[in-house]
Amino acid sequence: MAGNIVYIQANEKIAESFQEAFGERNIELIVAGTAAEALEIMEQKDVGLLLVDINIPDMRLSGLVEICSKRFPAVIMDVCVDVLNSLMITKLVNRHAIHKIFVAPWDVKEMVEEIEESLDVSTISRERILHEKALLDESNRFQDTLRSLTESLKNQQFSYGKIRKLTDLLFQGIASLEETDTDGAEDKPEDPALRQMKMIFDTYLRMQTTETLEASRLEDTVRADLEKLQTNIPSFTYKISIVSLQTASKAKIADIRFTLWLLSYNAAYTKEQCTFSVTNDTPLIFRVLSTGRTTKKIPFLERYLSDLIKITATGVTETVSAEETEYTLDFSE
User: Fold this and answer.
1) How far is the C-alpha of 321 from the C-alpha of 287, rounded, in Å?
2) Distance of CA 63 to the CA centre of its chain
3) Taking the complete model, does pTM exceed 0.85, yes or no?
4) Cβ(89)–Cβ(43) under 8 Å?
5) How far is 290 from 304, CA to CA, in rounded Å?
6) Each residue of 178-192: pLDDT tens digit?
7) 231, 112: one domain
8) 138 inside domain
């Protein structure tokens, strides 16, 4: 059996006789003088059965049944009536889904056994409702997953255009390298610039198609990227602040991370300091501070950096001064 029994009965003597009979069977019977009081009790306690006297002082039985069916669907309802009226009993059973009807004069001790059976039905009803809820929750989770995958595929559809543009740019770079290659040696080592182009393309392709990254982990991931650069180029320093970026599509995150990677990679070789910040409400700001000297240049990035970030970012504004270069990047979807 599950839960307590709430008994709506304004007559104290009748209520006491019922409480005594149920107490002998170690079943708690909570008495409420009105329907409003009973509903308040049901909000606070685990109730399996509602026993109702037909003469509810503050509410029609049909209204009480409607409320219970919406707010307490697992609670079983039994009704006590004063006189046998076949039409009324038919309405109670057919229209109001009453489980049992007890007609006066009542033999309380016999009613206890019947009401215990109603509690068993309540247990079964509760298990069914919990099972249905679990199925509904599973269905909702499936729908959420389906929507997420659909959105991901939609974003990937837009990403393919960017990947194609990046591929075209890569081929242009390869073609320009081949035009300057007049050596003709078959075993010539691969040009460093060509390796850079391949690495750039492979990185972006991986970010857009196979890697999964939550928006909340973007700062940690970009910081790890920069630490790798600093390991190879100790003179490279950086500051990073990514706040409030809690929701973003996979494609957007890939574009942000890849653009930061490009700018940082270039700054690591040509400058010494870079800082950037991003929030949900403002464009990403990337600043490269000049140091007065250049350590090394990357031919491919020197030629194609501007074109690359224009592919990944929706909008790019570049402001150059003697001390620093500032990029304002828009990644709106």
Assistant:
1) 11
2) 38
3) no
4) no
5) 20
6) 555 555 555 555 556
7) no
8) no
